[in-house]
Design goal:
Radius of gyration of chain A: 19 Å
CATH superfamily of the largest domain in chain A: SPOUT methyltransferase, trefoil knot domain
CATH topology of the largest domain in chain A: Alpha/beta knot
CATH class of the largest domain in chain A: Alpha Beta
Number of helices of chain A: 10
Largest interface: A-B, 28 and 28 residues
Order of helices and strands of chain A: EHEHHEHEEHEHEHHHH
Oligomer: homodimer
Chain lengths: 239, 239
């Protein structure tokens, strides 16, 4: 399986088309769009996509990033390093070696790109496992999405066409929906328990919690177990 | 020194701007344009270049590819593999490792891109030492210049920022002007000698000759020696 490409709130149709074209060049096929600004379909995207229009026609639309993570196990966000967040940051080459290995072990990966001007929100970044940082000149860091997607897909193609000797002892990480279920369950418990005493501080605190949990890279079974643990603790408290 | 970027007969100003932007992202500064189709300066280029307008303003314009090779020792052409020509073809990563090593030994390198639709002519390709082929999906090979320049500059930046342990025994290859002088001298001798008996066959034969000569990677001194050898042979023949 090839990685899924997710564009979060893409703005210009031309950029969506450029991403689709680069996908075709490097053998990627599945595109997901989260709430594209100018609606969908978008003729500006088709104009730029050249022979990759079939990728646009097959693109799936989602209302938010959470739902776009359907069936995904590992999400890699190409974005600047967010402040105030502990998150693993690696290079495109490192990321794509992992993606190829994850794929071989049955874990579906997503390559995630944020909106052109503002980048991804912290709320969305927190749901990704890893941030991918493309090395650039310090004086002029900003790559546009047409450029950064080419780099990412090119590195994926290189990694996928090398002979990768896969040896994995770890279980495949759980699909993102399992993680979201865990997070929703935990958040409702924490809210119910008035864990976040100062409402202003909740967003950052809750981000940090999700981040360190995600770093566990748990399998389905491990998340189910953890959810059972939490539930039992919660129900004991109410009882 | 960072490699020089040469665009041969670029067509759309937007593409020149996109190349300049990618140059700035990856720390390249010197741009040479060979007879841009729409003249120069070109406001469409500035619109796309974003903060890289200074690169466009400093760009040098040349009437043909030969003159644009001024001061260059090694030229790498990003283009499809030409038919009917024996030329070394390597990947971007391999090329950029070489470029960094060449630079450390004092040889100025050029990254060359052809016109958007037609690609480089064989006459221009033959003056390049090496063809760089970006690996792509077999079903859809064609990258546009905005895409291929990002890949090339990204790989250069990666190679240049790694610790490269340079160990070179070979002398630095001669500047391209030395090669052109050699070729001109040799061609005039061959024409004078009616070497190319069938005029139709001259272009391909002459290409092949230049190609196998270039593979020698001679230094200034070696080319001067060879030119002296040829001259002495030629003058002996006339005498």
């Amino acid at each position: 399986m090839t990685p899924v490409v997710i564009l979060v709130n893409p703005q210009m149709g031309e950029n969506i088309g450029a991403v689709a074209r680069a996908m075709a060049n490097f053998g990627l096929t599945e595109l997901r769009l989260v709430a594209p600004r100018d609606g969908w379909p978008n003729p500006n995207a088709n104009n730029v996509a050249a022979h990759a229009v079939s990728i646009l026609e097959a693109a799936k639309i989602y209302p938010d990033f959470r739902s776009a993570l359907e069936g995904i196990h590992c999400a890699y966000a190409t974005t600047g390093r967010p402040r105030d967040m502990e998150k693993r940051v690696i290079t495109p080459a490192e990321a794509m070696d992992e993606v190829v290995k994850n794929d071989a072990s049955g874990a579906a990966c997503a390559l995630v790109f944020g909106p052109e001007r503002t980048g991804m929100t912290n709320e969305d970044i927190v749901l990704c496992d890893t941030i991918v940082n493309i090395p650039t000149a310090p004086e002029y860091r900003s790559l546009n999405i047409a450029q950064s997607s080419v780099v990412m897909f090119y590195e994926w193609f290189k990694a996928a066409t090398e002979n990768v000797d896969v040896a994995r002892d770890l279980p495949s990480p759980a699909p993102k929906q399992e993680w979201l279920g865990l997070f929703d369950q935990l958040e409702s418990y924490l809210d119910g328990a008035e864990f976040f005493r100062v409402a202003d501080k909740k967003p950052v605190m809750w981000q940090n919690i999700q981040n360190f949990l995600l770093r566990g890279k748990w399998s389905d079974q491990e998340i189910r177990t953890l959810r059972g643990v939490l539930r039992s603790i919660w129900e004991r408290r109410r009882g």
